[in-house]
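User: Could you check the structure of this?
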Amino acid sequence: MSSFAPDSIVLNRKLPLWYQVSQSLRASILGRSTADPLRLPTEERLAEHYGVSVLTMRQALKELEDEGLITRHRRRGTFIEPDATRGAPVRLLGSVDAIVAQQSGMTAELLEHGRVPVPAEFAEHFPDLTEAVTYHRLRSDEKTGEPTNHARNYVRPELAARFDPQELVRRPMTKVLRDVVGADISRITDTVEARLADPATARLLRVPLLSPILHYTGITYDSAGRVLDVAVIHYRGDRFAFSVTLDAT
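Assistant: Sure, the predicted structure tokens are below.
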């Protein structure tokens, strides 16, 4: 029986390896084709693929098993759960690959885009700009079609001019800036807070007015400390959880 082939990543040794591996494998699973095999390679082969120990690989697989994405059977192997729930915790730990992994497993609809004045709340992040290019997208579960979050990005105009807006239907903004534009992404600062759904968010996410939502702000910097992109995302409170992992080593 053939096995599912996960993508490869370059690991950041400053972050927990099990976490990076679990997020990469998670992104591969959620982005798989329906024709891909459901059986995963053995722990040993996966550990070799990612360049980590079997113990680290086991910890990464336990994370995915707890999330319901895979099932593990003694002597039979590890299998992708075809009907796994696609909702996922919002985790603040990370590499750019980890951020991209959080955005996998969803479809996206580009609702609008264009130049707008820099919002007053973000003026400090764009001190040299009066306008930014905004992109508003609605993301949905790729299996059920149920809305999960809506995102609005504010991007520097010179970067926005270097990619087709339709790229955002196929891949996350972080990946577009890094892989299509070739932007020098150094770090992303995340902030998550609890809020209540306003009328526009309630309509887009198909939830009752004043339902709990997670309000996320992500600020992307280059190595010179310049802000490239500010993302504001509203997640459905019944589909996502807030989780923080601290590395004590």
